[in-house]
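Board notes (copied after class):
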Amino acid sequence: MNITLEPEVQALSADVIQWRRHMHRYPEISFEETETTAYIERNLRDFGINAIDRPTKTGLVAHIFGTKPGKPAVVALRADIDALPMQETTDLPFRSIHDGVMHACGHDGHAAMLLGVASLLSRQRDQFCGEARLIFQHAEELPPGGAVELVCAGAIEGADAVLGLHLSSAFDTSVFAFKGGVLTSNVDRFNVTITGKGGHCAFPEQCNDPLLAASELVLALQSIVSRRITATDPAVVSVCEFHAGTAYNIIPASATLSGSVRSFGAETRRLIEQEARLICDSVAAAHHCSASFDWLEGYPSVINDEGLTAYAERVILDRFGSEHIQKIGVIMPGEDFSYLLDGRPGFFTELGTRNAEKGCNQPHHNPRYCMDEDALIYGVQYEFDMTRSLLDGTRAFLEKQT
């Protein structure tokens, strides 16, 4: 692998891995990242960074000001810090000590990389002009999410560009995967309650079985994508929760479902909602039950600025080479990074962490997920390069955008 890292970046590799392992060992779920944020703040202050804001309960924003002469600008870099409510089943020596909580989506790595960038920028302020604003964001995993809270608190005001990165088991270690324009899907959630008439299982004719209706509903909802959405328009409807019953011989009085919808574009988003409501009402009525349907609109699509995407591609190409760049299509996972982009250019890239030889090939949100930690220092180098390039004192790219 022919990648040349700057010596001061390479020297941070062990520290970045140690920071990541600490946060992996002590994960915290969305909106409860109290100790994680405190740990991040302690490290930042050890770097000599004291311009630190806590605009939300568990979100943190650090401001690093460069001393290079020229036209100043503000570049924001975001890392999410929350873990998932799931039990880790790896045998890693630094596996989670908290039952039912695990970093299974790489957020521990995101935070560790941004700490590495903070360490470099704090010691090399003469290499950039303006402000590098480091956003350690809480609650990416749980809508309404932490990004919108930070936006409302003013954390992104004055930023000229925003950068985001997600570690990904879908790509080999050191591969940067990205596209200009729409990148991620809209993310919405639905909850359905089917209410019928319960009773003894030996006398089903005396009941209106909501479990049967709900079971049929799980299948019927799949027809939205297969029969109502154009085949070239990506969309996903997934029922992920199903709860009903209290005993083996009792037909319950109600059943509940919840699931996730992924789509692109406002028209498709609304069509799926309308069809889901119609199907729920119709299937329930066919079983002499009633349906209560709630639609919870979640994160909108991340839309990469085309100009900033081309700019980032050149930066990545210069450092890593074309063999480490992969152009991709849209991806179905959602991201509340989208809220940070309103009115300003932004760029979000995936960085591969897949290495089958090391056993690092499990998907995200899997209890055995683990990452190839060699990828972390590549993320640090990339974010360091992008920050210095955008804050070079000329504002050439940013003024071209306006």
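Comment from the instructor: The chain has two domains: 7-184+300-401, 186-297. The chain is about 30% helix and 25% strand.
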